[in-house]
Amino acid sequence: MIEFLSKIGASVRLLLEALGVAFRLFVHLVRLFKPNMRRFRLVSEQMHFLGNYSLAIISVSGLFVGFVLGLQGYYTLQKYGSESALGLLVALSLVRELGPVVCALLFAGRAGTSLTAEIGLMKAGEQLSAMEMMGIDPIARILAPRFWAGIFTMPILAAVFSAMGIVGGWIVGVVMIGIDSGSFWGQMQGGVDVFKDVLNGVLKSLIFGVTVTFVALYQGFEAQPTPEGVSRATTSTVVVASLFVLGLDFLLTALMFSL
Questions:
Q1: How far apart are CA 134 and CA 151, in angstroms?
Q2: 17 exposed, middle or buried (CB, 10 Å; 0-12, 13-18, 19+)?
Q3: pLDDT digits (tens, 9 = 90+) for 58-78
Q4: What is the pTM of this model?
Q5: Burial class (CB in 10 A: 0-12, 13-18, 19+), 72
Q6: Burial profile 95-104: b = 16 or more Cβ within 10 angstroms, e = fewer
Q7: Alpha helix locations (H) across 79-198?
Q8: Torsion-angle region of residue 192: left (phi > 0), alpha (psi -120 to 50) or beta?
Q9: CB count, 10 Å around CB of 33?
Q10: Number of CB atoms found within 10 A of residue 250's CB
Q11: DSSP code per residue over 174-186
């Protein structure tokens, strides 16, 4: 019994220690906002790396999600004679939920793992230690530009995902099935609220961008400097970031649409 309690105590201590380290790192990254804006070239380079290289999977995934939403939505609305509301259904589903959430999950799998592996390999190769020996803060030079680039990139990718999804829904509903194009766009324009729906989706994508990017950087920065350690950190990035995104989505939805 004593041994069991000691294991629980050790686990709790390690968890609290990890939370403390993560909080200090997060605060440090937030404080580096102004210095990074003065050296925006570093941030823009990382935005190109994270955003441009993720654009293909985001666009294609959004298009096929729109295809599926168009088909499923049509078959559901057809039972109630409301096929003309297909555009509204597709737009609200993407802007409110699927756009930010699915994009964040794809971003964690594509860009998050890349960030973790890159930072982990730099740590394993002692590049971060070498920077400290030269008097350069590796958090300010390496982590902070990637952190803010991920935050700026995520809403743009979510918007692209939602736009491609709406195009996919239009292709299925209007081109393939034959729903009136005016009804498709008219219902969408009349039912989607800029502040309640679009801005809430943008806010979600910003929060998901902070979460996914920070988890990826933290996992890479705290990874064991071995091939096995970097591999475990990369896997942990996808698992932890995905769970955080899904949990935060529930909380944010409950807060946003209950007010």
A1: 29
A2: exposed
A3: 999 999 999 999 898 888 888
A4: 0.89
A5: middle
A6: bbebbbbbbb
A7: 86-92, 99-107, 113-124, 127-133, 138, 144-170, 181-191
A8: beta
A9: 12
A10: 9
A11: IIII---HHHHHH
Phi, psi torsion values for 100, nearest 5 degrees: -65, -40
Taking the mean position of all CA atoms in its chain, how far away is CA 21? 22
Unique residue bearing structure tokens 């004679």: 81
Name which of 258, 170, 161 is nearest 205 in CA terms. Answer: 161
- DSSP summary character for residue 225: S
> DSSP per residue over 226-257, as a string?
SHHHHHHHHHHHHHHHHHHHHHHHHHHHHHHT
- Number of Cβ atoms within 10 Å of the Cβ of 111: 28
Q: Give every CB contact of residue 180 below 8 A, 6+ residues apart in sequence.
A: 84, 174
Interatomic CA distance for residues 192 and 201, integer angstroms? 12
pLDDT digits (tens, 9 = 90+) for 85-140: 888 888 988 998 889 999 999 999 888 899 999 998 888 888 888 888 888 888 88
Cα distance between residue 47 and residue 43, in whole Å: 6
Token pair in block for residue 238: 């996808």
